[in-house]
Task: inverse folding
């Protein structure tokens, strides 16, 4: 009688082994990050615009253009700072959202359904959980890279009032990327085509920027919308990012950080579960 | 749950007893027993949908079985999947290469997945590129490669960590004859080098050319097992006479068909007669008043074994 057949006497041990089989390995996920960096090295030029230039263009356009329009009234909603300074840190958080969600959309769906390389990867010592953890880690890292550039620009232009604040904003962008990238990955691994993305981006991601305090305070929204807004991650990212940039006291820190972590961790667990379900039939 | 067999040969690398996989109400694999021995070239032969790919997926540890026992290297893939996968190479039916990376990069990243260090990956990658005649394309992107080259790269990639067992799912489907032969040569070289190879195919000639031993699968079950030679001797006659009737075979009298050879199969436009001597059988067919448009005599093949066992041809 061989070890694998004699299940009954060591049921606990088999159960532990089965859990270990499904759980992410402590370090193997890093090979997925390495793989994605290899891919990124080949096509980084394409993502420079969306990751680095676009947020600055939006900032310049809205900050200066809308800033003139808002004029003196800006001070009423911003608490005294210029409109550019008011929306810049918020745009940093919302561009973290944009980059994380798009990185967790097509690149993941393609590897599940089109080029199907994930099918080959789960046939190596890596398991489905390693793949998802690695994919999400890469997304967060890529956003951190772009956010560091953005934070640098804000620091140089004096919009971010202290280096510590800029560093804090970078951390907030990372958390925001995690909070959006992980649930988006969970959605992507269930999709057969990219039609679902159009729906998701138009109906959820793009409008979120308007209802999360990016361009005007959440308090200006009806109460129900405010509640809804705090249920999504972006409002928390914006609130933290703005306080850190302006050097105003950060209130409810753990509420904000906790909400972002909850979305990120919950999203990661969902992504692992759904990816396993898709791959291990 | 067949878990009783303990007298199996110790050299079996893969051993399945009552292996079953159910999807909803459909049994994809319905209680099959088989063993793959160290160093052999083992085949799963059968038409599409027979359960071959599902069996391969269970062996590769990416499809949990519904019931039965399965051991690879003496371990249960549900409990030791990662360790097992570290020692097998898998080539999927559809390409799963990264199209944005170069040929060589595709090999390098997989070496990392198997936990190899960079210098040994580089050495092994160059060795494999050489072996599969891809060295001059090493720095090219994968996308524009021909089907045969992509397939060779997929196999090279699966061999990066020098696996003990190589598993190939329909490796030559969609390849032109020249690319097929090139691939067959490469696989035979690997086998001589000591790699155990498991493949699925619905091509008779492929199974006959490559496999030391094979199982014939049909409708989720194994219907026969043995070497190609054994199977032909056991389940088919020495020669086969094929008679072609473009206008259909329904009108031909059963009595006439029974009188020609040892056995017969009536297909839509062909009658296939198993016999000792094809020429003599053809003469008898003409005596019985049959008037085929064309005819040929050949030695029996695995195709005839399959036809005999299931009453259908493989591409049906």
Result:
């Amino acid at each position: 009688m061989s070890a694998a057949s004699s299940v009954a006497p060591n049921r606990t041990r088999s159960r532990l082994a089965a859990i270990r089989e499904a759980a992410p390995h402590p370090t193997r996920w890093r090979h997925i990050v390495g793989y994605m960096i290899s891919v990124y090295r080949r096509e980084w030029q394409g993502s420079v615009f969306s990751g680095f230039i676009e947020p600055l263009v939006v900032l310049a356009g809205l900050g200066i253009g809308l800033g003139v329009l808002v004029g003196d009234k800006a001070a009423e909603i911003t608490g005294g700072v210029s409109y550019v300074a008011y929306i810049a840190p918020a745009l940093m958080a919302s561009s973290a959202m944009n980059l994380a969600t798009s990185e967790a959309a097509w690149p993941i769906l393609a590897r599940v359904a089109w080029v199907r390389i994930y099918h080959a990867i789960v046939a190596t010592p890596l398991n489905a959980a390693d793949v998802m953890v690695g994919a999400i880690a890469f997304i967060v890292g890529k956003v951190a890279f772009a956010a560091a550039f953005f934070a640098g620009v804000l620091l140089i232009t004096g919009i971010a009032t202290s280096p510590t604040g800029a560093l804090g904003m970078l951390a907030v962008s990372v958390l925001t990327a995690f909070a959006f990238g992980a649930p988006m990955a969970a959605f992507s691994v269930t999709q057969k085509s990219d039609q679902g993305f159009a729906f998701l981006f138009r109906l959820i991601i793009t409008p979120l920027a308007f209802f999360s305090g990016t361009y005007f305070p959440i308090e200006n929204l009806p109460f129900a919308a405010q509640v809804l807004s705090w249920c999504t991650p972006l409002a928390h990212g914006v609130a933290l990012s703005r306080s850190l940039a302006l050097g105003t006291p950060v209130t409810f820190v753990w509420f904000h950080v906790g909400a972002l972590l909850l979305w990120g961790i919950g999203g990661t667990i969902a992504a692992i579960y759904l990816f396993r379900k898709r791959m291990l039939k | 749950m067949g878990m009783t067999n303990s007298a199996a040969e110790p050299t079996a690398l893969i051993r399945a007893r009552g292996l079953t996989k159910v999807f909803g109400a459909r049994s994809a694999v319905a209680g099959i027993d088989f063993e793959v021995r160290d160093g052999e070239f083992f085949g799963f032969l059968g038409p599409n949908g027979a359960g071959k790919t599902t069996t391969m997926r269970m062996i590769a540890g990416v499809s949990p079985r519904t019931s039965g026992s399965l051991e690879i290297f003496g371990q249960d893939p549900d409990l030791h999947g990662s360790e097992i996968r570290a020692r097998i190479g898998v080539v999927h039916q559809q390409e799963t290469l990264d199209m944005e990376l170069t040929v060589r990069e595709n090999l390098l990243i997989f070496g990392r997945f198997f936990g190899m260090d960079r210098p040994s990956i580089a050495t092994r990658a160059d060795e494999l590129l050489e072996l599969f005649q891809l060295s001059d394309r090493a720095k090219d992107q994968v996308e524009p490669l021909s089907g045969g080259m992509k397939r060779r790269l997929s196999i090279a990639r699966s061999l990066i960590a020098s696996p003990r067992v190589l598993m190939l799912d329909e490796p030559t489907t969609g390849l032109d004859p020249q690319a097929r032969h090139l691939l067959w040569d490469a696989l035979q070289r690997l086998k001589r080098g000591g790699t155990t190879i498991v493949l699925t195919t619905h091509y008779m000639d492929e199974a006959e050319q490559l496999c030391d031993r094979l199982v014939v699968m049909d409708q989720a079950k194994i219907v026969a097992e043995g070497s190609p030679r054994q199977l032909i001797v056991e389940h088919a006659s020495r020669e086969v006479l094929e008679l072609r009737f473009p206008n259909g075979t329904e009108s031909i009298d059963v009595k006439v068909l029974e009188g020609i050879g040892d056995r017969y199969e009536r297909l839509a436009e062909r009658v296939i007669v198993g016999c000792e001597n094809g020429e003599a059988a053809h003469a008898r067919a003409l005596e019985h008043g049959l008037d085929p448009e064309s005819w040929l005599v050949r030695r029996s093949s695995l195709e005839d074994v399959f036809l005999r066992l299931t009453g259908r041809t493989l591409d049906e």
Observations:
- Residues 30-70 of chain A form the longest helix (41 residues).
- Chain A has a mean pLDDT of 91.
- Chain A touches chain B at residues 1-5, 14, 17-18, 21, 25, 28, 31, 34-35, 38-39, 42-43, 115-117, 119-127, 279-281 (CB under 8 Å).
- Residues 110 and 139 of chain A are 15 Å apart (CA to CA).
